[in-house]
Amino acid sequence: MLESTMALFNKILYFCGLLLFATGLVRAENDDDGVTVELSNYGNQIRTIEEEQYHSPQINSKSIYFAEHFDDEAAFKKKWVKSEAKKQGVDEAIAKYDGKWEIQAPSRRILKNDLGLVLTTEAKHAAISALLDKPFEFKDKPLVVQYEVTMQEGQNCGGAYIKLLSRGTNTKADLRQFHDQTAYTIMFGPDKCGNDNKLHFIFRHRNPVNGTVEEKHSKKPNQRLDDIYKDKEPHLYTLVVRPDNTFSVLVDNREVNGGSLLEDFAPPVNPPEEIDDPDDRKPDDWDEREKIVDPTATKPEDWDEEAPAQIVDPNAVKPDGWLDDEPEMIPDPEAKKPSDWDEDMDGEWEAPLVDNPACAAAPGCGPWTPPLVPNPEYKGVWRAPLVANPNYRGKWSPRRIPNPHYFKDENPFKMTPITAVGFELWSMSPMLLFDNLVVTDDLAVAEQWAQQTYALKRTKISSDSQSIWGRLLRATNYKPGLWAVYAVYCAIPVSIYVAYLVRRAREDSLAERALRLAGEQPWLAAAAALVAFALIAGLCYLCCGPSADPDADYKKTDAVTEDDPPQEEPQTQKASKSTLEGPEPEEQTEQSDDQLADQQEEEQTDQESEPVEKAQIDTEGAGDGQRKRKPRKE
Asked: What's the pLDDT tens digit per position in 221-236?
């Protein structure tokens, strides 16, 4: 009887498991055929989007200087050239650019037939580049650079930035010699090592006086960007440099940095008009001491430097009942020497000490000593007071002289023309995927390009998050009561097992009769299990289903709202791979409260007007570390 009952119980569990598995398969097939996404706009709107078949982006525009979707491997091999050079300034064993580049589908399939350029190796230098369709001249049109990066295995240490190579790299033979010292005009993109996260925008400025070239680093982004290095999802990076000397850096169509080429870079484009005289020296008699020891002060006669800081309390009295002759610890009277104790090897055995029971009721045991109290006569070591220095002349500084290297460049936008693009990287994390690179002079073209590529991916990722398990996990964030449902569901097999134990303890109990009935009527037991499962599934749907409460709706955009908590930048910094890669130092700037408020209002307006295809993700943050490398001059 018992064996048949347990066999029936196993069959019921198997049946429920098969039912769950079949439900998951049906859901997966529906996801492949056509994706239905529920998007709620603060609880007021629900729309359905059917996924379209992905096609490589096609834009016919004269404003495009370079466009690459990496979906055509044959065309890629004709256009892109792998470097055959060696990295300069490193050990010969690791100087060769032997990192491997391949055209592959993403590890996590998002769009069918979508391919990308993947750096498959780790801890190796890798470089690859391609010529522009036509050179970009910095004249009266903006420069727009846009590309996608997917860190498929996250990023521990390494960069994923792009270099826009300067005029002089004009042929494929030049591309084969592409290395870290190859002249570039702009470097742009993410970089991370440890907790040192950065989003670089560096341009190389030519000194109009002596012709030297110096790298200029943009200020830090005004938001945190930690998630882009660990969420393993595609992110869109956009750089816009305008003829009016302003720039914007966007991540996933959201501006995270911006400003002026003249004001928001370090070192600044234009040097100061005056500098400290390098030949000026501080006079020997220059006294910078604001305070000095009073030369007329003397130690008082009654000042005793030998007096102790604490003395015995003269008013202390030994408490009544203090047991002077009783020790605080005594040998354990119940302890016995182990039978295997060898005094020749282990020494003389001693019982362990325990608290003296005689001291339990007494105020104390052992010799009594009065406590110490602060000494009222204690003054410590005497020191003469400080007085104003009559010879104080202030802090010395060298005199200012006109800067012999001063110049004023009012239009740094006019940079060296660009003739090629390239990736010259080193990474400790493999499988970096690059996709959908475009260089243009029209931001609308870049946005159209993103609509055909990145927007489709974000829509698909959002739709995948609407699966049953995704909804369950999200629901627990704002419906903690759902955990009670999980507890009830897990308690069902436990309850059946307890009933079995009760049956063993009480022969003619209610549990026994229920198990006997289940053995005689197996279909009735199966029907009861299905009904219980249906009730639990219905309760889960009620907990996880669409909510009419706007505050409980799933937030599909990362627009800033009034109830979003402010973010603070971390202050901890760590060293990085300065010996291998090293974009230069940046200076931290802060936005005023008014600027942040204006930016939040603009982001809310943009979020309400953008189409669904521009679904965004939250990239709260900017890299904080300072990876030091001195600006390079030529």
From this structure: 888 888 888 888 899 9
List C-alpha distances in Å: 243 to 77, 136, 139, 411, 440: 34, 13, 7, 8, 14
Three-class SS state of 571: coil
Are 203 and 599 spatial neighbours (Cβ–Cβ below 8 Å)? no
What amino acid is encoded at 223 in this protein?
Answer: Q
Cβ distance 184 to 201 under 8 Å?
no
Burial of residue 593, with CB atoms counted within 10 A of its CB: 0-12 exposed, 13-18 middle, 19 or more buried: exposed
Q: What is the pLDDT of residues 436-467, one digit of tens each?
A: 999 999 999 999 999 999 999 888 888 776 65
* Half-sphere exposure at residue 632, Cβ-oriented, CA atoms within 13 angstroms: 13
pTM, full prediction: 0.57
> Which pair of tokens denotes residue 56?
């490589």
Cβ burial of 456 (10 Å; 0-12, 13-18, 19+) is buried
pLDDT value at position 199? 92
How far from the centroid of its chain's Cα atoms is residue 529's Cα? 46
Q: Which pLDDT value is given to residue 60?
A: 82
432: left (phi over 0), alpha (psi -120 to 50) or beta: beta
Mean pLDDT over residues 376-397, rounded?
92
What's the burial of 296, exposed, middle or buried (CB within 10 Å: 0-12/13-18/19+)? exposed
Q: Is the dihedral of CA 486, 487, 492, 493 positive or negative?
A: positive
Q: Which amino acid is at 279?
A: D
Rounded Cα–Cα distance for residues 94 and 173 (Å): 23
Provide the token pair at 20.
């769950």
Helix or strand run (H / E) with residue 131: strand 124-136
Across 468-477, average pLDDT: 51
Query: 100-114, 329-343, 355-369, 600-614: which has the minimum mean pLDDT?
Result: 600-614
- What DSSP element (H or E) covers 200? strand 196-206
**Close Cβ partners of 355 (under 8 Å, ≥ 6 residues apart):** 328, 329
Going by C-alpha positions, the residue among 145, 140, 151 that lies closest to residue 163 is 145
Amino acid (one-letter) located at 397: S
Q: Please check whether residue 225 is in contact with residue 160, taking contact to mean a CB–CB distance below 8 angstroms.
A: no
Res 44 pLDDT > 50: no
- How many Å apart are CA 16 and CA 544, to the nearest integer? 21
* One-character DSSP codes across 397-452: -PPEEE-TT----S-TT----EEEEEEEEEESS--EEEEEEEEES-HHHHHHHHHT
- Give Dmax (Cα) for the chain: 111
Query: Quick one: CA dihedral 339, 341, 344, 348, positive or negative?
Result: negative
SS (H, E, C) 344-377: HHHCCCCCCEEECHHHCCCCCECCCCCCEEECCC
On the CB side of 35, CA atoms within 13 Å amount to: 22
Alpha-carbon distance 475 to 456, whole Å? 25
* Closest to 441 in 3D by CA, of 242, 260, 167: 242
Task: Tell me which H or E stretch contains 173.
Answer: helix 172-176
518 within 8 A of 8, measured Cβ to Cβ: yes
Alpha-carbon dihedral 579, 583, 584, 585, rounded to 10 degrees: -100
Q: What is the pLDDT of residues 186-209, one digit of tens each?
A: 999 999 887 888 899 999 999 998
Cα-based distances in Å from 248 to 77, 280, 477, 494, 499: 32, 43, 35, 59, 68
